[in-house]
Specification:
It comes from Streptomyces triculaminicus. The protein is an alpha/beta fold. It contains 10 helices and 6 strands; from the N terminus they run E-H-E-H-E-H-E-H-E-H-E-H-H-H-H-H.
């Protein structure tokens, strides 16, 4: 029996996935969480074979949780299941140690098969997304540029961003300018939007 932890913030989707996967004779849902901060503590408690993680969760993202699991529970395979099939997300998931990456619009039979395949040591990646990731290339933004853009998401001022990321306003302006240039956009909000669409934030 394969023990599965399911992390999904939408209650109805989480319940439906648990119900459908639970119909598989060899799969057992041993834990369900709706918040990214709950993933690692629950995984350490129940010791799943596979963690099925959404990316955009309250608290820690599924990508951050995947890295947590790789370091603290290396025997647990991670399969990312997301609505957002963005090339940058795929690249970040692989860097975080995920064994698979699927989008939510596929049939549940494919998901069950993917769980079995990652448990067997295979990598399972949505083919269309893999092709898009190859053509998109790597994330051009440095970690600091990502931090500054992430702090600018809600339209914060340069002073607000500087306080949040512990940098001087002049340094923040430099990072914002670099990020705008690298994303080929006209201002910081367009840069945030472009970075999000590509899965770089």
């Amino acid at each position: 029996m394969t023990r599965v932890l399911l992390a999904e913030d939408q209650g109805m989707m989480r319940g439906a996935l648990a119900l459908l996967l639970g119909l598989e004779e060899d799969l057992e849902i041993v834990a369900q969480v709706g918040d990214g901060d709950e993933i690692l503590p629950k995984a350490l408690e129940v010791r799943p074979d596979v963690a099925l993680l959404d990316i955009e969760l309250p608290g820690r993202s599924g990508l951050d949780a995947a890295a947590d699991l790789r370091s603290r529970l290396p025997g647990c395979r991670v399969l990312i299941l997301t609505t957002f099939g963005r090339p940058g997300y795929l690249r970040r998931a692989m860097e975080a140690g995920a064994s698979g990456f699927l989008v939510k619009d596929g049939p549940v039979e494919d998901l069950a098969a993917a769980i079995r395949r990652v448990l067997a040591g295979e990598r399972v990646i949505d083919p269309a997304l893999a092709a898009a990731a190859l053509s998109a290339g790597p994330n051009p933004l440095t970690q600091r540029e990502r931090d500054v853009l992430a702090a600018a998401v809600d339209g914060a001022t340069v002073a607000d961003i500087a306080a949040k990321v512990h940098l001087s306003p002049a340094t923040v302006r430099n990072y914002l300018s670099a990020a705008i240039g690298k994303t080929c956009t006209r201002n910081r909000m367009e840069a945030v939007r472009a970075a999000r669409q590509n899965g770089w934030l």
